[in-house]
Amino acid sequence: MAAVLFDFSGTLFRVESTESWLRAVLDDAELHMGEEELRSAAQALEAAGALPGGVHPTRIPEQLADLWRDRDRSAELHRAAFTAVSRQVALPAEALHDALYDRHMTPAAWTPYPDTAEVLRALRDRGVAVGVVSNIGWDLRPVFRARGMDAYVDTYVLSYEHEIQKPDPRLFRLACEALGAAPGETLMVGDDRRADGGAAALGCAVHFVDHLPVAERPDALRPVLDLAGRSADRLTPPGKQ
Question: CATH classification of 3-14+110-234, choosing from 3.40.50.1000, 3.20.20.70, 3.30.830.10, 1.10.10.60?
Fold first, then answer.
């Protein structure tokens, strides 16, 4: 493999819990909610899918369906979609919905999986090019810089910057072109079988990891080092991992 592409959320990094997210915003705003009320609000926000990078919504209201489908095509759509689902939940102040959205874009809201730095560093040492390909509506580069991992990433291909969402193969093609790697010598690693599996249509090999809390997934990325050393025709077909 000449290159490895990684998804961001649920693959290399995990966003904080919904309760931690809400607590941080309330603290910043110097607002108070009782513990039972706070936990109830956090559960409602989680069910609504209001935390980007968190749990998928249990249901999207019909009037938001189009906005939700296209949310990763621009920064404006992304904010509008997530604040709209957040506003389904009553909070002590209306401004908290935008504050919650702003919070999730901060490096403090994200934690790398335990083996992320190790794997990225090892790929760099081997001369394997690394790209991050994400469906997202904001610039995640500061998250990597804050953790000292930006030096291991050769290119970032973000949906909102190109108005293209995974699983559209064009997004993966842009990443391969930026790295100077043919799709047949590129491995895509992600947690979403539909979105990240779109790389297979381009001819990339695909490997999936589980979107789990950081403490529950200490070393799921390490097999990538072995996979990156194999030829594409020896890799497990997408969906079989």
Answer: 3.40.50.1000
DSSP alpha helix (H) spans, 30-179: 35-48, 65-69, 75-86, 96-104, 116-126, 141-146, 159-162, 169-179
Residue type, 51: L
pTM more than 0.90: yes
pLDDT tens by residue, 194-210: 999 999 999 999 999 99
Q: Which residues of 133-168 are buried (b: 16+ CB within 10 A; e: fewer)?
A: bbbbbbebeebbeebebeebbbbbbbbbeeebbbbb
Domain limits of the chain? Answer: 3-14+110-234, 16-108
How are the residues of the chain apportioned to helix, strand and coil, as percentages rounded to the nearest 5? 50, 10, 40
